[in-house]
Amino acid sequence: MLAPPSGVQSESRLLSVCALAVLGLSAVVPPPPATAVEAPQTAAQDTEHCSACSAHPHREAAPSREDVLVQLATFAREPMTADSPALEWLLYHGDHVREFIAGADLDPARREFLEGEIARDRADIELRIVTRDGTVRATASGSTRLGEKVHLMPEHNDLGIDFGGSVLRVGLHHLWSRF
Known about the structure:
Elements: E1 14-16, H1 19-23, E2 27-28, H2 65-75, H3 85-92, H4 94-101, H5 108-119, E3 122-130, E4 136-145, E5 150-152, E6 156-157, E7 163-171, E8 174-178
Parallel strand pairs: 1-3, 2-3
Antiparallel strand pairs: 3-4, 4-6, 5-7, 7-8
Helix pairs in contact: 2-3, 2-4, 4-5
C-alpha cells in the first residue's frame, strides 16, 4: 500500500492515496511547438460540453429498487472479492445502494464489509505531465469526494494548463478518472 504524500493524513474513508499513480498513468507531452497551430473544431465541441469534458454527466440514471435488491441477494451468495459481479455492481452504484443495505438479508460480516467499502468515498489525486526525456512540465495534487468535479491548482506548471476533473469508483479495486 502506498503511503500518503507528506503532510497528508491517512483517513479510513480515503479510497486511494494517489488515484492516477495507483493506476500507473502519466501523460507524455512533447515540448510546445514554436508556433501555435489551431486544431479544427469537431462536432462534439459544437455542443456545450463534449463527451470527454469532466463537466459532462458521468453516470446513467439511478438503478431501480428491484435491481438493487436483486444485486444484494446475489452478493449474499457470492465471495466478498472482486470476483463477485454483484459486489462490483453494488460499489459502482454505492450512493444509491446505501439506503437498501439495512433491509437486506446479509450476514453481519458481509453487511459490515459492504457498508465499509461504500463509505470509502474520497480520493487523493496526484497528476503530472512528463515529457519523453523525463522533464516534469506540470504537477498538481488534491483531494476530492468521489463523483464530484474538482479543480486542482498546479503546483508546477510551465505549460499554462489547468487541471479539472473527477474520480469515480467503478469496483472493489478500481477507480475511473477524467481530467
